[in-house]
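hey m, so remember when u said the tokens were messed up on ur end? i reran from scratch. heres the input so u can diff it against urs
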Amino acid sequence: MDDPNKEIIETALGSFWLTHYPERGTFRIWWPSKARVGELVKEVIQGRAYWDPKTYGWYVPPSHRDEVYVALQELSTSGL
């Protein structure tokens, strides 16, 4: 990707996308509707992110940013 604030994480169950907002200290997570990877990501972000129906994405606040980011990165290397 050309935008340094965007990245794709690929897993065996599909891909999901992150958009980082450094000025806010947050990031957004998105995956295609009904994608199998969604359930995997939801397990990681449960109670640590909030849904925004206007942008159809999950947002991780600064208080959970680092721990959630590391856990999401691990999904790409865990073989799941």
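this time it looks ok to me. Helices lie at 37-45, 65-77. if urs says something different then somethings off w ur setup not the seq
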